[in-house]
């Protein structure tokens, strides 16, 4: 066998070994990536990692990197005097790691949230809880996915703009399991799902016709209210998926639930929670 063939074979084996090792390297070094932007996001405050106050559900390997389902549940212990202040979702390896920050009202002791994120490279996905005394608690899952931020939009631009801002806002079901220990019957939780038609352009997607980059335009603000009380406000970024979908818990029997949202172009959308169908 010639030296050239041997060299080519060695290079191919080395490349294969490097590619095989890359995910393991990424997972081993994930906390180092987080440390590069942690101070910008949270300052010098300590963060309790692996906190029992919150849990996350996320796939180990995503079927579609542009719509990775993420679920977060927060529950403070019975008798804890604190309330939930914020829940922040982070994708370490994304160009803009902070995907969304949810600021809660209603002096909540528990909160459940499900949404869909873009994951641009093998990455830790994190949820950071802030209680109203300023303490930070974190949980994370490593997700194998790549290319989510640059993945082409599912709809063409004309279709996306024609349906821009259409809302589906509906109740899911009473969430009996979310009722905190010792809570009264009137304070248990229900769940709703909010879906907004919006391309949520990341600024990294390419127009298939002229090969130019589509300018970023995404839903960056959502306010959900129950009567006069704020359930949560959300500040979002490019990591929220196309047609953002947010499922969340809210106080049952606490009055009508409404939503107002806007995108980075200042276009506003609004709606109200539809009536629960009988038998649902």
Automatic annotation (TrEMBL):
Membrane-crossing residue ranges in chain numbering: none
Q: Which residues form the signal peptide?
A: 1-26
Instruction: Please tell me the species this chain comes from.
Output: Methylopila jiangsuensis
Name this polypeptide is given: Quinoprotein dehydrogenase-associated SoxYZ-like carrier
Family matches, as InterPro entries? Fuse-rel_SoxYZ, Ig-like_fold, Ig_E-set, SoxY, SoxY_sf, SoxZ_dom
Residue span(s) of domain Sulphur oxidation protein SoxZ: 183-271
All copies of the Ig-like SoxY domain together span 39-149
Q: Which Pfam families match?
A: SoxY, SoxZ
> Which keywords describe this protein according to UniProt?
Signal
């Amino acid at each position: 066998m010639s030296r050239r063939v041997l060299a080519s074979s060695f290079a191919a084996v080395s490349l294969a070994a490097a590619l095989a090792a890359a995910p393991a390297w990424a997972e081993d070094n994930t906390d180092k990536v987080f440390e590069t932007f942690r101070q910008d996001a949270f300052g010098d405050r300590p963060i309790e990692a692996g906190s029992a106050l919150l849990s996350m559900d996320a796939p180990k390997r995503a079927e579609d990197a542009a719509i990775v389902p993420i679920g977060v549940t927060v529950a403070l212990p019975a008798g804890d005097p604190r309330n939930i202040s914020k829940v922040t979702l982070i994708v370490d390896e994304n160009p803009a790691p902070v995907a969304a920050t949810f600021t809660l009202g209603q002096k909540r002791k528990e909160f459940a949230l499900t949404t869909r994120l873009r994951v641009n490279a093998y990455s830790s996905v994190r949820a950071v809880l802030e209680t109203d005394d300023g303490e930070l608690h974190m949980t994370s899952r490593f997700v194998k996915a790549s290319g989510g931020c640059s993945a082409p939009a599912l709809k063409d631009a004309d279709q996306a703009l024609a349906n821009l801002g259409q809302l589906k806002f509906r109740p899911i079901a009473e969430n009996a399991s979310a009722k905190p220990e010792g809570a009264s019957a009137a304070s248990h939780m229900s769940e709703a799902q909010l879906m907004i038609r919006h391309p949520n352009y990341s600024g990294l997607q390419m127009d298939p016709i002229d090969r130019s980059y589509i300018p970023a335009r995404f839903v960056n603000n959502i306010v959900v209210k129950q009567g006069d009380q704020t359930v949560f406000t959300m500040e979002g970024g490019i990591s929220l998926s196309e047609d953002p979908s947010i499922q969340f818990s809210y106080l049952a029997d606490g009055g009508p639930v409404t939503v107002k949202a806007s995108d980075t172009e200042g276009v506003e959308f609004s709606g109200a929670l539809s009536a629960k169908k009988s038998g649902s």
